Amino acid sequence: MPIRPAVPTPQSRGGAFTRRTLLAGAAAGAAVLPLAACSSPLAAGVAGAPLNPETLVFWNLFGGGDGVRMQTMEDGYAKQHGGSSSLQATTFAWGNPYYSKVTLATVGNKPPDVAIAQKTDGKNICIPLDTHPFVLFYNVDVCQKAGLIDGDGKLKDLNGLENFEAALAAVAKVTGGTALNVANVVPETATPWRFFWTMYNQIEGATPFISDGGAELTVNEDAYAKVTEMTQKWVEEGWLNKALDYATAQSLMFDGKAGFFMQGEWEISTAQSIKGLEFGMVPIPQLFDKPATQADSHTFILPKKDRTPEQRKAHMLFIKQMLEQSLTWAEGGHVPAYMPTFDSTQYKDLTPQSNYASAAESAVFDDPAWYGGSGSTFEGIVGAQLALVQQGSSSPAQALSAIKGQLATYLNTPSPL
């Protein structure tokens, strides 16, 4: 199967999947696990109840629009294999509730046949379903009034810091307020991190923020200062919001009170649900030396369990047939990793999704660390301080000092993996 390789440390939006994160949540999750249905895969994993060997068991954490599209793909698989009895797909709560359940089921030697996210012996062994990058949403009406839409109805080239700042100034004149919204109020730590990590990695000489599996802080402090000082400049100019939560940051762009909004491409479903909204999506402009954008990947894995050769083949066939339905998944915004879909005419005709597909080629994942990844301790610590910089509550230097102090415990704790 021709698939775009996952970046060496793919993480799902639900968090870094490591034995550390799984086992840390297991004790807390054990007290609340529902065990009533003894024939369910969860009950089988925890209590050892038997499962129908002919039914493929798939666990995931996809909610919202992702969940609807995943269910469509699951139905497509089931139709090819005799109906609903061929597949038992279960969606669990995002984050630790999901990983705790996978851990407990694995300990009970009854994990699902296929799941999302994986870490084995320090290596990621998985089949990527997608890349989901941080992107730039834009309000067509606002950008048209700001002179940023070309004769073909597309957003003009915004590459280059001076060029992009001129665009921000033009949009701000139209809105009478901010030009760009990036969610940043506590507890919104993921977005400030994604914004920073995108800009930081566009700078030549940018080093990993943390290295050696999370044991060493190696951030390039000059590049850090360049990005954080730029952030505060944009706030002071009135171009970038000072303090907005996730929902408000996007709704203001949808309502025409801002021209731009930076977030993961999965918010395409939200934008499409707004009646009368004409919007577009493009990769984050290259403001510095090279293109880069923060990204994650959803991945398929086969949890450790005893399998016959026939079962292994069936479980791999499930993954293959899900990948073959990647166009359905791409409708929700994610860039397909399955190359026949990525290169297809159908995907190229899917807009605005295909308009930012190139972002997958410059994707930058988070540094590997036992306490890192999406929704992780690392992201919470660093993202919170970056949010304070955007709010004007902390200087870049003060934020970096706080980051160093708060990460010290984790930097000095050997990886438990």
What's the quick description here?
The chain is built from 16 helices and 14 strands. The chain has 417 residues and is an alpha+beta fold.
Please name the CATH architecture of the largest domain. Answer: 3-Layer(aba) Sandwich
Query: Mean pLDDT, as a whole number?
Result: 87
Indicate the structural class: alpha+beta
Largest sheet: number of strands, sense, barrel closure: 7 strands, mixed
Following the backbone from N to C, one meets helices and strands in this order, namely HHEHEHEEEHHEHEEHHEHEEEHHEHHEHH
Total domain modules: 2
Can you count the helices? 16
Please provide a written account of the structure.
- It is a single chain.
- By secondary structure, the chain is α+β, with helices and mostly antiparallel strands.
- The protein has two domains: 19-116 and 299-333, D-Maltodextrin-Binding Protein, domain 2 (3-Layer(aba) Sandwich), CATH 3.40.190; 134-295 and 367-411, 3-Layer(aba) Sandwich (D-Maltodextrin-Binding Protein, domain 2), CATH 3.40.190.10.
- The chain is built from 16 helices and 14 strands.
- The chain has helices at 19-30, 41-47, 64-80, 96-107, 140-145, 161-175, 190-200, 221-237, 246-254, 268-272, 309-323, 326-330, 339-342, 345-348, 377-391, 396-411; strands spanning 56-60, 87-91, 115-116, 127-128, 130-139, 180-181, 210-211, 216-217, 260-264, 279-283, 293-296, 299-301, 335-336, 363-364.
- Strands 5, 6, 9, 10, 11, 13 and 14 form a seven-stranded mixed beta sheet that branches. A three-stranded antiparallel beta sheet has the order 3-12-4, with no helix packed on it.
- Helix 2 packs across helix 4.
- The model is unreliable at 8-50 (pLDDT under 50).
